[in-house]
Design brief:
heterodimer; A: 861 residues; alpha/beta; Ubiquitin-like (UB roll); Alpha-Beta Plaits; Rossmann fold; 5 domains; seven-stranded mixed beta sheet; six-stranded mixed β-barrel; 28 helices; 34 strands; 30% helix; globular; B: 154 residues; alpha+beta; Arc Repressor Mutant, subunit A; Glutaredoxin; four-stranded mixed beta sheet; 4 strands; elongated
């Protein structure tokens, strides 16, 4: 125990913290500028100088570690003089443009000068001037205002790990620049904006549109983009979101955000939002009243149900909607329409992979704390780049490397390239072989632990011959052995599984291998999730085979609980998967569909077939915030309230339930409300006053969410399995499918690019993200560019067996020489249009690997 | 693109230091020599070899005044105008270079043959005025002697 005396007050410390931290713990304020709690200590601004007895000079409180018996004074005449002097120096160059500067009101320099500074400066010469930089579409730099505290640089380098900005020049000319000196070429996380104490680095999104003191409320909610579920604070003025900021101390993202979370909010006020129900009459949409639209939907669904039975109707739920919306959706389908035909886009990867994993490792096997990654000693990354799919999770991996942990990657992971990864880059189509090789070698050094006999039996059955693995995969023996040494020596390892693995040939077999590796090293599995409530919708029972709380629908003893609660019978046969729905609609067996917040035409393979299938339906109703390609095919389109316009909950990939809050007012109904209205029109009463009432029902019927309330969730630690029980012990036979290994040859193949700046098509409705990443491109390697005489900006026609797209070319040396990378984010230009539905027979995930691509120059831009 | 030899040279420099960052300054010199100045491509090349983010490489280099931060002529003349050289007529030589070769201090002649950098003391006070052309050292300069020297550089 250490005791220090600050300003005459004895402070007892558990451990030797800095004097600044000791003072703060006792409520004593010491002024600071370069200090920031998230960043490495710097001691540059000198404002935190304090007097320490027996030390000859003033000391910086932010770097001085407390020692027992220290006597410190933080407010003396001498210190006041020194602080006045430092602030006077800073104001030599800092412009006094506060009336015009957006930072005014929350500017740390302004506040300090007001408290500690003088009213008058004595400096007569001219101020340094640096022109305002508006070269970047999202971040504006006013380097005249920069006080060189380097908080932004320490954030970018030390915490974000992007190292995209640096102090340039020297002395009085020092300021901050990205590499180009103008536009940023970075991850656009905007965390530099968060930490800048003055108005030197700011967001352009809210420029000159409000003052910090005009924000009446800071509304804390959850980010709408990926499965990490970051806490975000919305600052709203006049029902417009002005700014999204993080909160230091929040559990998931602790003061950090990514580009989508920080700059992607503008879709909310987008003018293309649907405002009124639309009914198609003679092929043309006409605006209709809610009464008209809802009674039409109710009547047509009733006709389909009564005419053809529940099996002839189907519904698609949404990983962007809340748990409450999805719960009501499946209840509507099961209770009102009498069908288990409920599924979602999670079927294209996440859902299938998760049930495969859970079948082997038990329910909740992927429910691991994201922040725990940073404390692992080894993180093995498979299936793509976590820093683009789940950026804040990616930061935890970077942080792990920063703490001395080993990062191992199967394939090249661009976002981790500066973090000393041990990288094994298997040749095209040899990933399975490489994983086999890793497992085989691990088996030689590790005992099977005996905890999962059924799985072990399967691992033993594996017939792997290790010969030539290294040669065929094209990795060096030295790299392979080094990789393996790190993996087998891990004490607290984690394995990250991305969608690239799930959507590849033989994905179930690869998953099996990865799980076996994980089993041998006793690690934790993280399954990357691309949508904010992908996990929640599964938990809510929006799958054809399970009920809320992940109870299989096929068992009568599970069904009974819900049947009693809902006073109805639930069909005992699992329903159709999303792909089967399309087939069934195409063949005419399915008559009507209800699609909520999803765009299957765009997000499923074979859009031509999906289009034909949906057109073949007697009745299609689409409920969304925008008129999507799928919406255009609908008979009725219902506009719903979106993120930030409604209350509810999301469940993130670590299965933390978090509250979503209403921040802006918009006329309209929540998805659950619309569904309730339709139900009422079909003679079934769904009486819910608000989202909380729905959640109370969820916690009553779902054995997983037992006794969970909004109050409980607000405390912040509603973590799986909450107060309920996960299902253990139901383990079906472990079946996986290896698939045939393709011979790459010198052909080109399609790759799905997952950009950091986009998520589905939603992000393309946010103008800032569009500025950063404006259009769909075909990204090729320099060698491919040379072979086809293509340069960036040329148009190229990309053709596969399923379709063809004309796209501008981008050249990137991180792209594999045999791949053409295309995103699935831009309407009419999605990679899924080039994919036939060939699925892994076990996970049912579509295979986006080995799809041959034909390239043809299509003109120069 | 860096030549194979330059890449090898940077890798050899890297091997002499415990961390990549320690090797940054000498590596940047190699890239500067290859590209003629510290162009974005020069930083990118160093960044790729050393695994140091390019913004950091640029930040470090801009601290130092003696790297070439702008494109330069094929040959760089560095003339000292510090006290001893100044007393012995270096400033007249500056005028001479301006009139005879259209070389402004800090500038490049229209042919891109020479760039002139006014530099501080190079420790040749006893034999002032003095200058460097690229890495060659010349002393006891006169206008005539400079003409003779520069004639050797094309």
């Amino acid at each position: 125990m250490i005791t220090v005396n600050i300003n005459g007050k004895d402070i007892k410390l558990e451990k030797a913290v800095t004097v600044l931290e000791a003072a703060r713990s006792a409520g004593i304020k010491i002024p600071t500028l370069c200090y920031h709690e998230q960043l490495e200590k710097y001691g540059g601004c000198r404002l935190c100088l304090v007097e320490v007895e027996k030390m000859p000079r003033l000391q910086t409180a932010c770097t001085l570690i407390s020692a027992d018996g220290m006597v410190i004074r933080t407010e003396t005449e001498q210190l006041a003089e020194v602080r006045r002097g430092i602030l006077e120096f800073l104001l030599i160059n800092h412009p006094l443009d506060c009336p015009y500067c957006d930072k005014a009101g929350e500017c740390e320099l302004q506040d300090l000068v007001e408290k500690y500074g003088t009213a008058k400066g004595r400096y007569m010469e001219k101020k340094r001037t640096v022109p305002e930089s508006l070269e970047d579409p999202v971040i504006v730099r006013n380097m005249g205002r920069c006080i060189a505290c380097t908080r932004c640089v320490r954030m970018c380098e030390g915490v974000q790990g992007a190292s995209a900005i640096a102090v340039i020049n020297r002395g009085g000319h020092s300021h901050i620049e990205p590499f180009s000196g103008g536009r940023y070429d970075c991850e656009y996380c905007g965390n530099c904006v968060s930490v800048c104490p003055v108005g030197a680095i700011m967001s352009r999104l809210h420029r000159h549109s409000y003052r910090p003191w005009q924000v009446k409320e800071n509304i804390e909610t959850v980010c709408p983009y990926c499965g990490v579920g970051c806490t975000v604070i919305l600052q709203v003025r006049d029902d417009v979101i002005k700014r999204v900021v993080p909160r230091i101390g929040s559990v998931v993202n602790n003061g950090m955000l990514c580009s989508r979370g920080r700059f992607g909010y503008e879709f909310v006020g987008n003018r293309e939002r649907l405002t009124s129900p639309l009914i198609k009459k003679n092929g043309v949409f006409e605006e209709a009243t809610w009464e008209e639209a809802i009674s039409l939907v109710a009547n047509r669904l009733k006709e389909a149900r009564d005419g053809y039975g529940g099996a002839a109707v189907a519904g698609i739920a949404s990983p962007r909607c809340t748990n409450e919306d999805n719960f009501i959706f499946q209840k509507f389908m099961r209770v009102v329409l009498g069908t288990n035909n409920i599924d979602s886009s999670a079927r294209t990867g996440y859902a299938g992979a998760q049930s495969f994993i859970e079948n082997i490792s038990g329910q909740g096997a992927t429910a691991n704390i994201i922040a725990g990654l940073s404390n692992s000693d080894v993180v093995l990354v498979t299936g793509g780049d976590p820093t683009t799919v789940n950026p804040i999770l990616g930061l935890q991996i970077r942080s792990c490397a920063g703490k001395g942990g080993n990062i191992l990657t199967v394939g090249h992971v661009r976002g981790l390239r500066h973090f000393n990864p041990a990288e094994l880059r298997p040749a095209l189509f040899t990933e399975t072989l490489l994983l086999e090789g890793i497992l085989h070698s691990l088996k030689n050094t590790k005992e099977l632990p005996g905890s999962n006999p059924k799985f072990e039996a399967k691992i033993r059955e594996l017939n792997i011959s290790p010969e030539d693995i290294i040669k065929t995969c094209g990795v060096s023996e030295e790299d392979f052995n080094g990789f393996l040494k790190k993996l087998s020596g891990a004490a607290n390892p984690a394995i990250v599984i991305g969608k690239e693995l799930i959507q590849s040939i033989g994905s179930s077999y690869k998953l099996f291998l990865v799980l076996a590796i994980n089993y041998l090293i006793n690690g934790r599995v993280y399954l990357l999730s691309e949508r904010a409530n992908e996990q929640g919708l599964i938990d809510m029972g929006c799958t054809p085979d399970s009920l809320p709380g992940c109870r299989p629908v096929a068992y009568a003893e599970f069904r009974r609980r819900y049947e009693t609660a809902w006073k109805t019978t639930i069909p005992d046969k699992p329903g159709l998967s999303i792909f089967e729905m399309m087939d069934s609609a195409g063949s005419g067996a399915l008559k009507a569909m209800y699609i909520m917040g999803e765009n299957p035409l765009f997000n499923l393979p074979e859009s031509h077939a999906s289009e034909a299938a949906l057109k073949n339906l007697d009745f299609l109703v689409v409920q969304d915030i925008f008129l999507t390609e799928t919406g255009k095919l609908a008979d009725v389109v219902l506009p719903s309230l979106g993120w930030s316009e409604k209350e509810g909950t999301f469940t993130n990939m670590e299965r933390r339930i978090q509250r979503l809050r209403k921040a802006v007012y918009r006329d309209g109904m929540e998805d659950w409300k619309i569904l309730s209205e339709v139900a009422k029109n079909m003679g079934v009463k769904f009486n819910y006053a608000d989202a909380e009432e729905i959640f109370n029902e969820i916690s009553r019927v779902s054995p997983l969410h037992r006794d969970l309330t909004y109050n409980e969730i607000e405390k912040g630690n509603a973590l799986y399995p909450y107060k309920g029980e996960p299902l253990r012990g139901v383990m079906e036979d472990i079946v996986s499918h290896k698939g045939d290994r393709l011979d790459a040859g010198d052909k080109l193949y399609l790759g799905l690019e997952r950009p950091l700046f986009h998520s589905g098509t939603l992000s393309t409705k946010a103008s800032a993200l569009l500025h950063i990443y404006p259009e769909a491109v075909a990204t090729i390697s320099p060698s491919t560019a040379e072979k086809f005489s293509l340069k960036p900006g040329d148009k190229v026609r990309v053709t596969t067996g399923a379709g063809s797209l004309s796209l501008p070319v981008a050249v990137d040396d991180a792209v594999h020489g045999s791949l053409v990378m295309i995103t699935n984010n831009f309407e009419g230009k999605g990679a899924f249009a080039l994919i036939k539905y060939i699925a892994d027979p076990v996970t049912k995930a579509p295979v986006i690997e080995g799809i041959e691509v034909h390239l043809e120059k299509d003109g120069t831009v | 693109m860096l030549s194979e030899a330059a890449i090898k040279e940077i890798e050899a420099i890297r091997a002499k230091y415990p961390t990549a960052r320690a090797a940054l300054l000498p590596a940047i010199y190699v890239a500067q020599r290859e590209f003629g100045w510290l162009s974005p491509e020069a930083y990118e090349a160093v960044s790729d070899i050393l695994g140091i983010p390019k913004a950091i490489a640029r930040g470090v280099a801009t601290f130092y005044a003696m790297y070439r931060h702008r494109p330069m002529g094929r040959n760089v003349v560095q003339l000292c105008t510090n006290v001893s050289c100044m007393i012995l007529g270096a400033e007249k030589l500056v005028d001479f270079l301006k009139n005879r070769y259209s070389l402004e201090p800090g500038g490049t002649d229209p042919d891109g043959r020479f760039s002139l950098v006014i530099m501080e003391c190079i420790g040749a006070c006893g034999t002032a005025p003095a200058m460097l052309v690229n890495e060659d050292f010349y002393e006891n300069l006169t206008e005539k002697y400079i003409e003779e020297i520069l004639g050797k550089y094309k």
